């Protein structure tokens, strides 16, 4: 279905065919790593502040009890995102991050309008797709030969 056909566009610079063939499998780990790294930038300040400092903000946004959601966010956004980047327990943590993004979208961003929701929706859809696909060829899941 996705193989080369006679109707495929031709390369403008055919000399690049070897380069494209060599890097064509790197798109998936690149997406995993970049999206996970972006989530980690949100988890790191939470980790540095501590759950006690994050909990009141969680409760104010409607996530009660705030301390439970603070710890959950910290674990998902640091450990979970690192595991997605490495491709370790990828399906589990990507699904958990997709659920976190769904909650952020519905509870926090929906009342603020679509312009606020689009980033959480994008991240949620990407993590859902990663959960469906798993770690892929360049992952620790592949190395250990097991997936959750």
Short description:
By secondary structure, the chain is mainly α. It has helices spanning 17-23, 27-49, 51-60, 66-86, 90-109, 114-133, 140-144.
Q: Which labels suit this protein?
A:
148 residues; elongated; mainly alpha; 0% strand
Explain what you see.
The chain contains seven helices and no strands. The chain is mostly helical and 148 residues long. Helix 4 (66-86) crosses helix 5. It has one domain.
H and E string: HHHHHHH
Shape: elongated
Compute the CA-based radius of gyration.
19 Å
Major β-sheet, in short?
none
How far the N terminus sits from the C terminus, by CA atoms, comes to 28 Å
What share of the residues lie within helices? over 70%
By secondary-structure content and strand pairing, the structural class works out as mainly alpha
Indicate the mean pLDDT: 94
Number of β-strand runs? 0
Total discrete domains = 1
Number of helices: 7
Unreliable stretches, pLDDT < 50, 5 or more residues? none
The percentage of residues in β strands lies in under 5%
């Amino acid at each position: 279905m996705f193989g080369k056909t006679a109707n495929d566009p031709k390369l403008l610079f055919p000399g690049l065919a070897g380069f494209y063939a060599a890097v064509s499998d790197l798109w998936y780990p690149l997406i995993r790593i970049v999206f996970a790294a972006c989530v980690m930038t949100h988890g790191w300040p939470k980790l540095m502040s501590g759950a006690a400092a994050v909990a009141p903000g969680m409760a104010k946004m409607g996530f009660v009890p705030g301390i439970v959601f603070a710890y959950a966010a910290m674990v998902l956004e640091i450990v979970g995102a690192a595991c997605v980047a490495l491709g370790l327990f990828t399906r589990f943590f990507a699904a958990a991050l997709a659920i976190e993004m769904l909650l952020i979208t519905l509870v926090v961003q929906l009342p603020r309008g679509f312009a606020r929701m689009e980033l959480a929706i994008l991240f949620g859809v990407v993590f859902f797709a990663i959960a469906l696909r798993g770690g892929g060829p360049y992952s620790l899941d592949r190395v250990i030969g097991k997936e959750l």
